[in-house]
Specification:
Oligomer: single chain
Shape: elongated
Strand order of the largest sheet: 1-2-3-4-5-6-7-8
Structural class: alpha/beta
Length: 269
């Protein structure tokens, strides 16, 4: 690695490299070879958002084996704050992912698409604030909302199908101590929402993400009226899960942003 003297003011040089890095993360490994100071600036950008498949255009897709080796460094492991697991893991990849979770103690934002119940024991020690997952697959024996994985969660996005859901199965949502934002996707009915709003007084926004491809079920007028009069309830088209998540993780606007704005407006009406 060359340790060249900067020819520009250091602050300006750093801004240039950071702009180039955030615009096209696959080039960051090349930039790291420029100088030690550039490596210090850009490694946090490279590792802050980790996806293993379908990255946003201009961004890197990580290989589980290589990342597992990289995060054995205590410095690099602390840079990983946002993690998206959106594909079925073969046994070898699962082994690497478990090593990643064991090393990366700064992960606060996690997406699990599919059946990843094997990961649950490794999630308990993470300081998770945001979780997007199919909860019934993560908890095949029944969702335990008192599990340590929920202890710090403020934003919960569920992919569970709730076609025949009973409130008894979801009553435990009220036990999540810090939950403020709750979103449901892949469901056609609104039956349990009034119960959620009544039991979860700490929830600021309840979001129904409606698929354009599904026909909503007929819901009693009493349910519709209850939701219409609660300013915390928002219904909106469902965005692409991992695409929207990556935009938000990289500092852009995800589906929660307009909901936050509506909530803030409602507080002053």
């Amino acid at each position: 690695m060359l340790e060249s003297e900067p020819r520009l003011p250091v602050e300006l040089e750093r801004q240039i490299f950071e702009l180039a890095a955030t615009s096209h993360t696959p080039l960051i490994p090349n930039y790291l070879l420029v100088a030690r100071r550039v490596k210090i600036w850009l490694e946090p950008i490279l590792y802050s958002v980790v996806v293993f498949s379908d990255p946003l255009p201009g961004h890197v897709s990580f290989d589980p084996a290589r990342l597992s080796a990289a995060v054995q460094s205590p410095v690099i492991s602390q840079y990983v704050e946002n993690l998206c697991v959106a594909h079925i893991l073969v046994r070898s990849s699962l082994r690497h992912l478990l090593r990643i979770l064991a090393r990366c103690s700064s992960i606060r934002n996690l997406v699990l698409v599919g059946n990843h119940s094997d990961l649950l024991p490794s999630l308990s020690a993470l300081p998770l604030r945001r979780l997007s997952a199919n909860l019934s697959k993560a908890f095949p024996s029944g969702i335990d909302f008192t599990h340590p994985v929920f202890s710090r969660i403020t934003h919960l996005h569920s992919f569970d199908r709730l076609h025949d859901a009973q409130w008894e199965e979801w009553r435990g949502l009220a036990a999540i101590p810090n939950l403020t934002h709750l979103a449901f996707q892949r469901q056609r009915n609104l039956w349990i929402y009034p119960n959620v709003l009544s039991a979860c007084r700490q929830v600021q926004v309840l979001i129904h993400l409606e698929s354009r491809l599904r026909t909503p079920e007929i819901v009693p007028q009493s349910v519709i009226d209850a939701l219409a009069h609660d300013t915390r309830f928002v219904s909106m088209p469902a965005p692409p899960i991992t695409t929207d998540w990556q935009i938000g993780a990289r500092g852009g606007e995800d589906f929660l942003d307009p909901c936050r704005e509506l909530y803030c407006q409602a507080k002053f009406w």
